[in-house]
Each structure stands twice: as C-alpha cells, then as structure tokens.
User: What shape does this take?
Amino acid sequence: MLGKALAGIAAIAMSSCFSVAQAQDIKLYAFSSGALTIGKGILQNLGPLDPPIQIPVGFFVIKHPKGNVLFDTGNNDRIIKDPSYWGAAFNALKPVNTPDMAIDTQLGKIGLKPDDIKYVVVSHLHLDHGGNVGKFPNSTIVVQRDEIQNAFWPKAGTGGPYMIGDVLPLRAENKDYPNAVKMLQLEGDLDLFGDGTMVVKRWVAHTPGSQMMTVRLKNSGLIILTGDNVYFRENVEKSLPPNIVLAYNPSGFLTAYEWIRHMMATEKADFFTAHDPDAFKAMKKAPEFYD
Ligand SMILES: [Zn+2]
Assistant: This one.
C-alpha cells in the first residue's frame, strides 16, 4: 500500500516537471468533415463488407498557448460544388458534401479562421485527411517526407486514396526549393512546442509516412490521435489490422496497437480515431472540448 502511494507521489513529481502550466491551457476539439460509406471489412480485416456502414471523417484542433494546431484537414471542400473532383471515389465513398462541411465553417464553430492555425499536422495525405491541406497558405504543414513523396509519386498499389489536386498547392515552381508553403518534412518524431504537450510520432503502418500525435491535457490526460493507424477501438482491443489495401505495413498496425495498449495501461492514456462511428458518437464535439 505504502509502495503504491510512494509510486503515486513519484509519478506526480515526474509529471510536474512536464510543464504542467502549459497543459492547463490546452484545449482539444473534435470535428467531422462529413461522412463516408464503406464496407466494415475494408477497415477491419475479415469483417463484413455488406451492408456498408457510414463513418465519420474526424479531424481535431488543439488550442495551445503558443498557437493553434490542426490535426488532419478532412475531405477537400471542392467536392461540395464539384463531386467529379473525386472521380469514381465520389460514388464509391458517398461523402456527405453539404456546404456546412467546409473547413472554414467547421473552424468557425470555435471562432477560428484558417489563418489562425499555426501548424497543420497531417496523419497522412489520403483524400479524407489531407483534402484541405492546400487551404492553409499561412500555416506550417507538418508531414513525414515519405508521405508527401508518396502522395506525389505513390509506391505500387498505394496510390488509390491520394488526390494529386490536394497536394499540388504545396508545390512551388522552383525545382530546388519546391515548397510553396512553410513545411516541416519529418523523418521521425517532433515535440511540436518543445514542452512535451504535443508530440508527433512517425509510425509507418497505414501509409509509408503515417504519423500519430499525442496531446497531454490537464484533466483528460494523454490523448493519442491515431489517424488511420487505428480505424475502430475494437481493432486495438483485438489486434485487428485493416484489409491489405489499407495496410501498407501490416506489422506496423500491430505494434501501434501494442504501444497504445501499453500507454493506456501505464499512463491512463486514451486514443481518438477518425472513422469509428461509435467512438465518434461518444466523443464531445466542437464547440465542446477536452482539457
Ligand atoms: Zn487513409
């Protein structure tokens, strides 16, 4: 009993050297950029394909004292007026494309405009995560270099979910310095504000340059934003990767699930996914927030 109490005190002492002052002022907001329709068995291998299910297209905003951070950008707003932009993917995925899904309208729910975003962190650049990445000309894009390369020139069998039009605005004419916007092209992890509250973690699973991000909150604890490295909570609980068409590196999923379970057990962490309908329903949505 005493040992447990001492361990608790040690944990509190350790967390207090972790800039608690910062964590107190951080707010995490969840949004959905419409919805998609897909067979569950694509997102959870060996699951049923019929009838298809409707899934949210989650993205997140974190208000930090040193700047606002957007994690993923949803479906490109262009499909609201021009469904043909997605080609065959529009009929296959049946996105909800009502005008209120536009990224500006979504950010407006919490009083922000695109120019108020300091960093845009993309879990990966598939059409439902990097869709609006070109709409933040005054932000810094945080992406794995492997991912931006794959979006422009996909490895065999991985190109289907990228829209070249989503990423072209990031490319300048200058061949030697082709960034049209400020960009951090990572080849690993990044402590975004240098205070441990938000850490981008490279984790090659869903795509060649997938990344997740941890957010340390005062009351809600450590939240792991998974991007598509986790589709359903059940996938983590039962070690179920998606179908191979969405699993660039299948064993990367299994190690990600293992790490998430470890963080839940040791740090009381939790994780937020983009596409789990039940988990999303249970989540507080903007303008409500986690702190
Ligand atoms: Zn994806």
Observations:
- The two ends are 31 Å apart (CA to CA).
- The domain at 25-282 is CATH 3.60.15.10 (Metallo-beta-lactamase; Chain A).
